[in-house]
């Protein structure tokens, strides 16, 4: 199967996902094989929500919208234009996926198939309903994908390379277990925001999306703020207020109450507004419903710290501070060429 066929298949998959890009799913009669797949996918979405309390309709639809926007012919061609994919000798690439946000492993799945390899997927138990159904749709629109996509719940066997995502602890296991195979092993990462005191209300409202989307469970969610000395958080909390309905979600509220009780019992200083707590802490990974903050003395010093800690950081959100910054509100809208951990997945797949 040549590259244009593979690209066309994923463009059609993007068209299919576009129907589910807002919570009011709307059937488009022009989408291929809708009579076979539309109602079935609605059922899978319902199952995903029932299985994982963090996967509500809004967050699932947001993930689908992101992928529908990404899977266009122009985006795919722009992404792949710098690679020579015509000389790939097909190998079997295993993917061990996380399950913290809906379709979190889709970029790896896409990368393996679009580069001409076969994929062997081991999903997280938290996110098993959506991707196998989309794989079936992909096989329908391009039958040559049949036999190139496998899912397993068993021990991974008979593969040539692996892409595995997990915690720092599981990464050590992965590194040992897959030591004889070409691999990408991803560990815990979090995203940070740099505040200067010059932010507007609109900036903070956009930042709230980076913090609260997916309940803060993604590696691209901002979990830590860097602020100048004597920073006034009033404007920050005003910008966060648009997300106050999040406390109505039971799992989130339970985490908020638990973490607040821990902080109070431990006599930690923290600020809170009824649905979000901020606490001074040098760590990067904050608990649900909490954002850590740390003071900085100057941008140059902060840049050195971020460089030294780059292995902990996925994204840096800021406004006119760093050349590599991501604008407020954009962490959950990566481009196809924005690779997790900065590791070029396609380049890896071309070398195995």
Automatic annotation (TrEMBL):
GO terms for molecular function: acyl-CoA dehydrogenase activity. InterPro entries: Ald_DH/histidinol_DH, CoA_reduct_LuxC. Pfam families: LuxC. Signal peptide: none annotated. GO terms for biological process: bioluminescence. Keywords: NADP. The keyword Cytoplasm does not apply. The keyword Lyase does not apply. This is Acyl-CoA reductase. It comes from Hanstruepera neustonica.
